[in-house]
Write a structure and sequence with these properties.
binds zinc ion; about 140 residues; eight-stranded mixed beta sheet; alpha+beta
Length: about 140
């Protein structure tokens, strides 16, 4: 597993939170992207070498809507960059982690992604992501 790729924060309103985080970081978000399959709208901020992803639910069944209902707004997941997501999925399954998407999905920001269930990672939702370009593969 490589560096932390980004930290995901669940918010009720991307619009309001974009203003808040722009004040905090002194710089506006650089991208907004909707991932319809996940029922989320995301926006991305750069802070030096790091990235922060804000996530807003676009429908009541979205995992983000459920998260906010249970826990309120706040840190939702930590994403780690990997070079080969399929071999990491296999390795982590063999280690006993519960992988939520055994076949990685297309996530925001041109990535293939999967998640590890927080029940097997001390309550932290972990995202693995791999740049789609790295593989020269388009989905
Ligand atoms: Zn993420």
């Amino acid at each position: 597993m490589n560096k932390i790729e980004h930290i995901g924060i669940a918010v009720k309103s991307i619009e309001k939170s974009n203003t808040l985080f722009a004040s905090l970081f002194g710089e506006a978000h650089y991208k907004i992207e909707e991932v319809a399959s996940e029922g989320v709208k995301t926006s991305f901020f750069k802070t030096g070498p790091n990235k922060i992803e804000l996530l807003e639910a676009t429908n009541p069944d979205s995992p983000i809507a459920k998260f906010i209902e249970k826990k309120g707004e706040g840190i939702h997941h930590i994403a780690f960059a990997v070079d080969d997501i399929e071999s990491e999925i296999k390795r982590l399954k063999d280690e006993g982690f519960t992988v939520l998407n055994e076949i990685p999905k297309k996530g925001a920001d041109n990535k293939l992604v999967t998640f590890l269930h927080p029940k097997t990672t001390n309550g932290v939702l972990i995202e693995l992501c791999q740049d789609i370009k790295v593989r020269g593969r388009e989905i």
